[in-house]
Amino acid sequence: MAGSDKLRVVVTGGGTGGHVYPALTLARALVEQEADVIYVGTDSGLEARLAPREGLTFHSISARPLKRSRPWTVAGTALAAGVGVLQAVRMLARFRPDLVIATGGYVCGPLALAAALRRIPLLVQEQNALPGRTSRYLARYARVVALGFAEAIPYFPAACRPRLVVTGNPVRPAVIQAERKAGLSFFRLDERRRTLLVAGGSQGAQRLNQAVREALPWLLDRPDLQVIWLTGERSYPQIVAQLPGEWRQEKLDADGYEQQLVRQRHVLIAPYTHAMALALAAADLAVSRAGALSLAELLVQKVPAVLVPYPFAADNHQQANAEVLARQGAAVIVPDAELSGERLVCELQRLLDDAGRLAAMRARAAALAKPQATEEILSLARRIIGNQSARE
After folding, report:
1. 253 backbone dihedrals φ, ψ, rounded to 5°
2. pLDDT, tens digit, for every residue of 120-129?
3. Terminal alpha carbon distance of the chain
4. Can you give the residue range of the structural domain that contains 194?
5. Structural domain includes residue 55
């Protein structure tokens, strides 16, 4: 290893939570194994806020997304990438890592190129069933590409396929370890009722929220059901302002963060929760978008789902993710354009009234789950570093 017995790793992934959260999970696991870790991203990305909060050393480089619909921005994007490569080369020369791990997003391009120039091994982790352009491009430079879904394999160049390994997506230990009893207790829910979790995320949740709003009378009247509805932070004030009837305001403590919510009978509504692991553990059924990390967490907690893929995700990759679970019987899909309160009630009623089907979906989710993904990816990382050391 580079000048020390201690493993040195640079982790990068930026822009959206789908790239940042797996990078953070891998970075935390490496730190727990006493590795020196630097997280590289951009100042404008989600990672700039989250990585330092996790106690990670954060280093910013220049990078911009390539917007094909705006060709006049290509020169600026290329210039930013060139500057980013130079910045990354200098950072790598100082830190001298044994490995770079890239989980996607435009920031990975300059760093991966700098790693190639410095002859530093690269491991790419791709979350989606339809892989992103960055991952497909970087695969030619990577020693290993760790895939969340086997369905991603055909999208990579044939020459890269011997280096593709299906590991699943890294899931936070808190999600893997969370128990139903603790989840029900935290959210003050009734253990005799089944729990529906609605989580559209902070982006693209408008249609989900509208459908749930239309279905709210049915949700409130269903005697065997209770609901955790996470609206997204942007939508929460407007939704609460328009709620009919009397809603009680509450505050919960979630890992040192104050959790605000409102509750009427057995339906609680919150903008977001830092106790997502407990929300998943409490859930018997979910309504969700189909981001790869969200699906990995649902599977680990064995939660059947009604999936509404976000149609404007890059290359419509959420549809590809959702289809994997639907084909295996762990979820049903409702197209975004077809979602309404009436359609949502119909799908939920069909599942809740068929205990055998719900149990079968839960079993299929358990079979698809890959709770050891983080350990498998880090095992690949150690193998890459060992092979590199042997060459030197």
Report:
1. -100, 120
2. 999 999 999 9
3. 10
4. 174-368
5. yes
